[in-house]
Amino acid sequence: MINEIIVQTVGRQTKFLKKGENMKLLRLFFIIQFVLIPVAVFSAEKAKTIDELAKMYDVSSCKQCHSKIYEEWANSYHAISLVGSPRTLATIASTVRDGILKEWTKSGAKSVKDIKVEHMMTCAKCHLPQLKDATDAVAQEIAQAALDGSAGDSSAVEKLKKVGINCLICHNQKSLIHKWTDGEPEPDVIYGNKEGVHADAKFKKLKKSPILKESILCGQCHGTGPNFDLKEPTQCATLYGSYLNAYVPSGGSKTCQECHMDKGHLMPGYRDPDQAKKAVSVEVKTKGYYFLPKAGDSIPTAKVNVKLVNNAGHRIPDG
User: Fold this and answer.
1) How far is CA 204 from the centre of its chain?
2) Domain limits of the chain?
3) In sequence order, what are the residues at sequence separation of 6 or more whose Cβ sits closer than 8 angstroms to the Cβ of residue 137?
4) What are the residues facing 306 on neighbouring strands?
5) Is 93's pLDDT higher than 60?
6) Which are the contacts of 261, defined by CB distance < 8 A and separation ≥ 6?
7) 3-class DSSP state for residue 309?
8) What pTM value is reported for the model?
9) Residues 138-154: tens digit of each pLDDT
10) Nearest of 66, 62, 50, 202 to residue 140 by alpha carbon
């Protein structure tokens, strides 16, 4: 008799059913219970500190097989994308101080402790896209470090250098654009120029990215104009828009990679002397003579003509 009794508990009510009675209802109850389990149980836990985020996106294993490429990248601005050039850190700090906490009065943030990931994605969409995998505490930590670092705190600058645009951003997260055609980037895949096995404990597969050699890969960050998907649309780089709307229509055929990867993954920009020489041609013509306003009173004078030609695939300056 005991084997024929099933206990059904719904809310605070308990019913005893005979075996086989209302079994469909019982199955439905367990299905509902399973579906309602928080999704967080099955998803990766978000980083709670900058250190945790750095560990989550650690690429140190890459240098075992790609030592030269790793060294090039490690010396690039991409590797320290929250610090970058002197302009970068100052701009992020002013976005926090003068934008989020001051001028953007509807942001809901009055102090750093109010800042959320959503606020910092104004900069992090390009400068640290992996911030989406972190908690608001990390956004606050980055905001405070940006403020302190721009004010001269070297330890804050070093903290920000722990995270940046690394191998996993370009070779996984940003490798596929047309999601309805190619799908979402797979978590255990490194995207390159061929298919195969990838000798890594975590990223065991190698798949081909259709955009890895195309300018559109770079255009995701070095963009076309305001990020209208953000609640406060802004974008400090419009290189790709210039490339598409000026360089290509005028007959240009090179990709970003052809010009900016001649030194490998260092990917130099205008601060590199060699890159600057290629980007702009300078022609200077001078002629010296004496101007004689009156007898016996000559003034040394020079005529200077300067001709600058932009040879880059986009306007200069930009970012």
Assistant:
1) 24
2) 2-41, 50-214
3) 48, 49
4) 284
5) yes
6) 267
7) strand
8) 0.81
9) 999 999 999 999 999 99
10) 50
pLDDT tens profile 233-282: 888 888 999 999 999 999 999 999 999 999 999 999 988 999 999 999 99
CA atoms of 209 and 170, how far apart (whole Å): 10
Q: pLDDT digit string (tens) for 37-80? A: 333 333 469 999 999 999 999 999 999 999 999 999 999 999 99
CA distance 124 to 129: 5
Alpha helix ranges (H) inside 95-210: 117-127, 136-150, 154-160, 167-168, 179-182
Percent of the chain with pLDDT over 90: 76
The two structure tokens encoding residue 258: 């052809």
User: Cα angle at 234 between 182 and 161, to 5 degrees?
Assistant: 80
End-to-end CA distance of the chain: 78
Length in residues, the chain: 319
Contacts by residues 152-160 (CB-CB < 8 Å, ≥ 24 positions apart): 157/83, 157/89, 159/50, 160/50, 160/80, 160/82, 160/83, 160/89
Q: Which residues contact 287 (CB under 8 A, 6 or more apart)?
A: 302, 303
Closest alpha carbon to 59 in 157, 195, 193, 203: 203
Instruction: Report the distance separating Cα 260 and Cα 217, nearest Å.
Output: 13
For 177, the token pair is 């654009």
What's the DSSP call for residue 75? T
Q: How far apart are CA 247 and CA 316, in angstroms?
A: 12
In angstroms, the Cα distances linking 27 to 7, 8, 211 are: 13, 10, 47
Q: Residue 174, SS3? A: coil
CB 268 within 8 A of CB 260: yes
**3-class state of residue 230 by DSSP:** coil
